[in-house]
Fold this protein.
Amino acid sequence: MHEGSLLGAIAREMPTGVVVLDSDGRILYANPSFLKSFFENGDVEEVVGRDLGTLISDAALLSAVDGFLKGNGGDRPSAGEIEVNEKNRCFKIRMVPAEDGDCFALMLFLQDITEEKMVEAIKKDFVANVSHELRTPLASIKGYSETLLDGGMDDKDTLRDFLKVIDKHATRMSRLIEDLLVLSRLESNQMPMVSEPIDISEVVRSITDGFRKQARDRGIELSMRIEDDVAGVLADRVRIEQVMVNLLDNAIKYTPSGGKVDVIVTADDGCVRVDVKDTGIGIPAPDIPRIFERFYRVDKARSRDLGGTGLGLAIVKHIIQGLNGKVWVESSLSEGSTFSFTLKSAAERV
């Protein structure tokens, strides 16, 4: 095979975008990956001869390219790299000049690193959130224990009150660490989930009954309605119990005294649908798309006061999606929320 044909075939199949410029900054060649990112639905013939600036607007990149093009001989850099944000994507671009006598060309290799940047940002946010969530209870535990060590133990009433506070914050830390471990195992697929027929009606009834005292103590009416024709579902019983616990716990916590929480189980087009509906404080519309993100809270102070870790709904989402189900929320501020999920009916299994 001719060397030029071989190189052309390699460039066409590369996932990295490749564009070659002449000494005036006009495009001599662009591979499919470049066209997909910067000239969708176009072909190479349409971009050949065009100035790079008509496709990419990043000023830093165009300035760097101009530095290569205007350099003379040894004044030109041998290569260079730059990161740019273009068309809502992030690219690492390597610029390599190619000279053969009086002929000059500049090759640009564009690697899409958007996903890497997103993962990096998520990791940074995760570390910051965990540090923040642990710092508050640790500070309280340290402060109260130091007070006791400095003589506070002499007063039995004070000792009892301080120990209650220490126990409360230690419990919160324990819950946070447990939820972190569960979420980590779910996200890394290290928590195997068994997809087998289970009686979803029995699971929902059992978990709901377990919350009746909590609801009664808070002055909340807890009701349950299960359709007679609801079939079993394909799911992991332990994980569905965890989903119901998280959803019911949230509904009761965020519903004021005198309110109501309804649990409804219905058949829904080859699936079983479970709704947990409350008359609580609701969720502002801008917050709804982010409500299943880890550590995302609408009211951070209130959530911490109620003992929330900010991870419950993220765990719910990963469990339901891991069982090939769907989960969503509908809510209006000050009117309440309905968290819903569907799972495939066991009767639908082939």
User: Anything to note?
Assistant: The chain has three domains: 3-112, 114-191, 193-350. The two ends are 51 Å apart (CA to CA). Residues 51 and 243 are 55 Å apart (CA to CA).
